[in-house]
Structures are given as C-alpha cells and as structure tokens.
Amino acid sequence: MGDPFIIAGKSYSSRLLVGTGKYKDFQETRAALDASGAEIVTVAIRRTNLGQNPNEPSLLDAVPPSKFTYLPNTAGCYTAEDAVRTLRLARELLDGHNLVKLEVLGDPQSLYPNVIETLSAAKTLVAEGFEVMVYTSDDPIIAKQLEDIGCVAIMPLASLIGSGMGILNPWNLELILERIKLPVIVDAGVGTASDAAIAMELGCAGVLMNTAIAAAKNPVLMASAMKKATEAGREAYLAGRMPKKLYSASPSSPTAGMIAPTQT
Fold it and tell me: Any idea which residues carry the catalytic annotation?
C-alpha cells in the first residue's frame, strides 16, 4: 500500500474504524461493516455477547475475528480500576488479544473523558503488555502524556459521544497533530460524511464512529458514505489544498492570449 495506516506495527487499508453497537441486530451490524470497508471494529465488552452467554447470539459469529480486527473497549467504565479489569477480561475472551481501546468516562450525562483516570489506567495496561488506543479530550498536553506512557494511538474527541455535532475545535486537533508522532484518530462526535472528511483533511490518521452510522435512517448507506468521505478527505490532505487568499481573486481560466473585444 502506498499510504499505509499502521497501528501497533500492523498495516491496514481502511482508515475508518466502526463500532458494533446500537444496530437493530447482528445482521445489520455486518452489512454496515461490509459497506464501510472497515477492518478494525470496536466492541463494548460489557454490552456485547462474545460467547460468555451461550444461549444468545454471539457477535463472533456475525463478525468473525478472522475477517475483522477486534478492538475491545471499556465503554461504561468510570474508574481506572474498572477499565483495567474489563480489558483483562477481554484478553481472556479473545484468546490473548492485546490491542484495546481505553476509555474512562467522567460522568454518565456528557460521557466526557476523565483524563486523570485515563492516564492511570493507561500506565497499568501498557505495563501489562496491552497495545492501548486511547480515547481522550482534545487537550494536547494530555495527548502528549499518553504518548509518553506508551499508547499506540491517541483518539481525541471531536465533540461529545453520540452528539453528532462534528468537529467543534479543529485548532486543538491541529495542536495535537503537530506534537504527536503516534496515529491521531478522531473519536466521538462525527455526525455525517462531511465531518469525517474534515477530520481527514486536517491530517488525522483515521476516524472512529458508531452512532453516526447505526443511528442513521439507512445505516448501510451511511456506512458507504463514510467510507467515501474518509478516503476523499485523506486524498485531499495528501494532495495539499490551495492556500486561502482573502480578497485575492484569481481567474481559473488563463488570461494570456485572450481575444480582444471588437471595437465599433
């Protein structure tokens, strides 16, 4: 691949990461994932059956780990201790799987990250050999601290989880992108395809979303739109946009050799 997306030493062709929750059933989940082209899928360990409930349908059957890279997450955790315990369980359920998404929330209303607990959990998980992709605020100082701890990807929010408000503070994202050498993946707040394109145009390595697809009137069609937007945004970033010039209009057609107007 000419423009590889590398996470924890593994290369992926899709820069769109997609969640597996909030769909009406596992069949719709799989159809949306296929339409999105995503290779990395997030799984809420506390809310999804991965075989621990033998009498219920298992996500492992609809979304086989042989085809998708699972990214177990700690959705619903509010302390470092709870998050670490959840990911230890995920490693057991997924046969030693070490690539995880850490998120420690501050409160159940805003779902804003608790960065103090996040830093604490990240230190423990990295020390235990986990490859930690970490959901955090758009604070560049915290992002740098998470990089220094040894996380493999930094995942700042664009806006609150499930809000669909899009990227509210592109300037902070740009500060993070300037300072962090790890992949920076926008996580939370994406509402539609243009949000994904903007994140990629800023230079983010990828975009993660769930509600934007699952809560759409047509989730499968929205998944397809998000795939295209992510790819288009990345291409625009690589191409390098023209500079913005206030009050400096320039004709798009050449002016040399124009036919002079006929005088009468």
Answer: 101
Q: At what angle are helices 26-36 and 219-239 packed, to 10 degrees?
A: 20
> Angle 183-99-146 (CA atoms, 0-180°, nearest 5)?
50
Predicted local confidence at residue 250, as pLDDT: 66
* DSSP-assigned states of every residue in 3-44: S-EEETTEEES--EEEE--SSSSHHHHHHHHHHHT-SEEEEE
Instruction: Work out whether strand 5-7 and strand 10-12 pair parallel, antiparallel, or are unpaired.
Output: antiparallel
Strand partners, 42: 19, 71
pTM for this predicted structure: 0.88
Q: What are phi and psi of 148, to 5 degrees?
A: -65, -30
How far apart are the C-alpha atoms of 142 and 127, rounded to whole Å?
19
| Rounded-to-integer distance, Cα 154 and Cα 144, Å | 9
**pLDDT tens per residue across span 117-126:** 999 999 999 9
CA-derived radius of gyration, the chain: 21
Q: What is the DSSP letter of 256?
A: T
DSSP 105: B
> Do residues 188 and 218 make contact, with C-beta atoms less than 8 angstroms apart?
no
CB 100 within 8 Å of CB 130: yes
